[in-house]
């Protein structure tokens, strides 16, 4: 359970609790509904309160956000590369060949299964703030409660959570820096594949070439938007597909797609501090930064 306490100052005096929940704590309407139905979800000076009650200087407002559990995800023991952890979030450096979420054919061998095993002794919901493809390595951010999930996902919507990727791309770029700003949509009836299309959703990827060797370029990429397969689609569109990309480039037997989520920057949901984390370039990148 995530617990929040606010000592009411003069600035907040005479405000409704609902106003504090939405304007100060930035809680979603769905989360507020959950609080209203919880036995001790909203407490004012130690007593149950409704969202329409007002608070005054010296009052103490306590918010207790209950947690459920992801009952359909089987806990599976596995080794996890933990980059950072506190009461609000967990940051993991995901290896290749590990899906983020369970799916057909992958019920017990995903990152979600490993996280559920780590927290098997408590009520826990697997909430991945970002998702990486099976063969993509790097940082995956998991919110450990609904409050932090709410604020972190809000940062994604407002484009305030920034991610940076490394990729090995085919060929030599004409320019050392640039941007691909092309809309993306699902291809026909395909569940997975995306294409550049004027009828798609706006998408932009900034890039900077770090090094070129033997027909391949090591590129640092900043996806300004977050469309499915955005980096892979955009690199293929400019004729620099990612090494061994089996969907948008040329598959190389025994080789994975060389894409890595290198860094992530966001505001901590509780402290408000700016956080930046990195995951080192994987050993199988044959061109290093």
Summary keywords:
elongated; alpha+beta; 289 residues; four-stranded antiparallel beta sheet
Structure summarized in a few sentences:
The protein is an alpha+beta fold. The protein is built from five helices and 18 strands.
Would you kindly provide a written description of the structure presented here, covering whatever features stand out?
- By secondary structure, the chain is of the alpha+beta class.
- 16% of the residues lie in helices and 32% in strands.
- The chain has helices spanning 17-24, 29-37, 111-118, 146-157, 230-237; strands at residues 2-7, 15-16, 42-44, 47-48, 54-55, 60-65, 82-85, 89-94, 127-128, 137-143, 162-170, 177-181, 184-186, 194-196, 204-213, 216-223, 259-267, 274-278.
- Strands 7, 8, 9, 10, 11, 12, 15, 16, 17 and 18 form a 10-stranded mixed β-sheet that branches.
- A hairpin with a 6-residue loop joins strand 17 (259-267) and strand 18 (274-278).
- The radius of gyration is 22 Å and the shape is elongated.
- The chain starts with a strand and ends in an 11-residue tail after the last strand.
- The model has no long low-confidence stretch (mean pLDDT 94).
């Amino acid at each position: 359970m995530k617990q929040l306490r606010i000592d009411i100052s003069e600035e907040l005096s005479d405000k409704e609790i609902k106003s504090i929940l939405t304007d100060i704590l930035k809680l979603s309407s769905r989360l507020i509904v959950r609080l209203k139905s919880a036995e001790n979800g909203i407490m004012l000076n130690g007593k149950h309160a409704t969202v329409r009650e007002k608070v005054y200087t010296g009052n103490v407002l306590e918010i207790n956000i209950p947690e459920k559990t992801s009952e359909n995800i089987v806990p599976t023991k596995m080794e996890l590369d933990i980059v950072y952890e506190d009461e609000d979030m967990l940051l993991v450096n995901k290896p290749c060949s590990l899906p983020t979420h369970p799916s057909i054919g992958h019920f017990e061998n995903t990152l979600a299964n490993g996280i559920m095993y780590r927290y098997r002794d408590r009520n826990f919901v697997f909430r991945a703030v970002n998702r990486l493809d099976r063969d993509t390595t790097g940082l995956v951010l998991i919110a450990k409660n609904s409050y932090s999930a709410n604020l972190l996902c809000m940062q994604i919507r407002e484009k305030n959570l920034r991610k940076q990727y490394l990729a090995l791309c085919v060929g030599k770029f004409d320019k050392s820096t640039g941007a691909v700003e092309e809309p993306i949509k699902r291809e026909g009836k395909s569940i997975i594949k995306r294409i550049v299309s004027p009828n798609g959703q706006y998408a932009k990827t900034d890039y900077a070439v770090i090094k070129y060797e033997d027909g391949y370029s090591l590129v640092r990429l900043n996806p300004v938007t977050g469309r499915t397969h955005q980096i892979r689609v955009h690199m293929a569109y400019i004729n620099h597909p990612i090494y061994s990309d089996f969907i948008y480039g040329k598959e190389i037997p025994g080789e994975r797609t060389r894409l890595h989520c290198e860094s992530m920057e966001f505001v901590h949901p509780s402290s408000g501090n700016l956080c930046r984390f990195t995951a080192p370039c994987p050993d199988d990148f044959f061109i290093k930064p």
